[in-house]
Design goal:
Blueprint: H1 18-95, H2 103-107, H3 117-125
Family: Belongs to the bZIP family.
Main location: cytoplasm
Subcellular location: Cytoplasm
């Protein structure tokens, strides 16, 4: 098959005309530039992907540390709540005869004539050891 735009020549192989040679070299330059641009874009994309993976890894490690610390705090607070509950359970029988049964009784008790819960706790404190 003939190359170039001149079809009047009957030979199978033609040397490129100067115009088609310039067009071919221009296409090659564009192709090389496009490949280089694509290579740089792919390199930047891989770099961003690596940075994102590194960032996610660091965030994951930090969240795991925070989770561990929070679980430790939950455990400590649960143990403290159990301890305080046992102290209260132990202490309640000592105070059951001294404290009114309801908040209403505490606030409107005729024995204290308008005393508050604060005043009541002060009055009762001398019975505690």
């Amino acid at each position: 098959m003939a190359h170039g735009s001149d079809s009047s020549d009957s030979s199978c192989v033609k040397s490129p005309s100067p115009a088609s040679s310039r067009q071919g070299s221009s296409d090659n330059i564009k192709k090389v530039m496009r490949r280089e641009k694509n290579r740089i874009a792919a390199q930047k994309s891989r770099m961003r992907q690596t940075q994102k993976a590194d960032s996610l890894h660091l965030e994951s490690e930090n969240l795991e540390k925070e989770n561990t610390a929070l679980r430790k705090e939950v455990k400590r607070l649960t143990e403290e709540a159990k301890y305080l509950s046992s102290v209260l359970t132990t202490h309640e029988p000592l105070c059951s005869g001294l404290a009114p049964q309801t908040t209403h009784d505490l606030l409107y008790s005729p024995h204290h004539h308008g005393s508050t819960a604060f005043h009541h706790s002060i009055a009762v404190s001398h019975y505690q050891h």
